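Handout, section B. The chain below has 249 residues.
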Amino acid sequence: MSRKIMVVTAAYGADQVRQAGGQRAILPVIAGAGADGVEIRRELFNGDELLALPALGESIELLGLLACYSAPAALFMPDGTLNPDLPRYLAEACTLNALWLKVSLGHFSDKHSLEALRVLLEESGMTLVVENDQTDCGQLAPMQRFKAACRVMALPVTLTFDMGNWLWVGDSPEEAARHLAPAVSYIHVKAAVPHRGQFRAVAPDRTDTRWLDLLNQLPADAPRGIEFPLEGADLTAVTRHYVNLLREE
């Protein structure tokens, strides 16, 4: 089985992306490294780049890459209602020809119907994946409740499993994998080490094999996204090293 490996543009750091001339300028590095696709991050756009989404989508396609789109936004607002900006994010993902839109969960409440979400997804035709972030909303308990609600409603929504973020919120990544693995369709791969009373993301081969054991608990066919720091004089070579590592493991 050939695993799909995506590279998150944020892995190069916001400053590096900016100095390179934006996310579009990073694409040849990702393609040259043999990756299957790219995760475009909305927070790394300046205003002009956001207006140029069709051109960005064309560049991604010309380089033979797949695309996914990440918006730094919660699916549910503090009052439990659906994020009013979700239609905009779905439309942007469509313009980019992305495979899916990724958002965080936010303040999910069982008290609110998910029917409005179903309607939006049907209208847009875009796939939605929901990630565990580094806030209380990204803890295992609310993610489990949301997964259960989607199953009851037969909603076409799956999960992004960020391997490192569980540590930020004080949960066990392994326990999260046991409960959520069947619903996971995308994996953010990162290892994490203690740093100043919290954690910091590191490349997986810079630490022990916990990351690999965890990865083996998750669906083997889920695309793997590189979201740990990619640094070095030859970014294409560095990226290729980790693309190959994640494809083989």
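Note. The longest strand covers residues 66-76. Compare this with the example in section A.
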